[in-house]
């Protein structure tokens, strides 16, 4: 949870550790598809606190990866309480509950909700992987001088695998892909694939 006066861009959740345009070769990767930077821009300057994305889905932005996952309401408040990855049992329950809410959003034709569920599943995977690789959760040494040595945690690795499976189910769902392309074309000005 972010403190008063902080924005998601101040949070380590805003950009995955180690990510930069330089390290990604000027592009991001999504599954097997290369996505150019200008294809997935996310506008953090919006007044997210004043926007109800349920009422105004046309204002929703897909962005890259997990961008905006902690900003977009009311979806954040609906999904965040379900998000847990401490143990494989917690991850299984959490990923299942988030997948169920994804299916409810899908049935309602609510693409922003579907995509937010996908983002939380992806975030479950990436955060559990972080702790699977570094028990402390810290990847970098002080001052980000070097990546710390791996300190594997097989329990968190299992939790990550559970989230990854659900995340890929959603990301590979043909209805999700179709609705994502339609949303981006209609509301973000992205040409059809």
Would you give an account of this structure?
By secondary structure, the chain is mainly α. 42% of the residues lie in helices and 4% in strands. The protein has five helices and two strands; from the N terminus they run ββααααα. Strand 1 (27-30) and strand 2 (33-36) form a beta hairpin. The radius of gyration is 17 Å and the shape is globular. It starts with 26 loop residues before the first strand and ends in a 5-residue tail after the last helix.
Low-confidence stretches: 1-38
Main sheet overview: 2 strands, antiparallel
Mean pLDDT: 83
Shape: globular
Roughly what percent helix? 40-55%
Strand-pairing-aware structural class: mainly alpha
Beta strand %: under 5%
Terminal-residue CA separation: 36 Å
Q: What is the number of helices?
A: 5
**From N to C, what is the helix and strand string?**
EEHHHHH
Strand order of the largest sheet: 1-2
Radius of gyration over all CA atoms, rounded? 17 Å
Question: How many strands?
Answer: 2
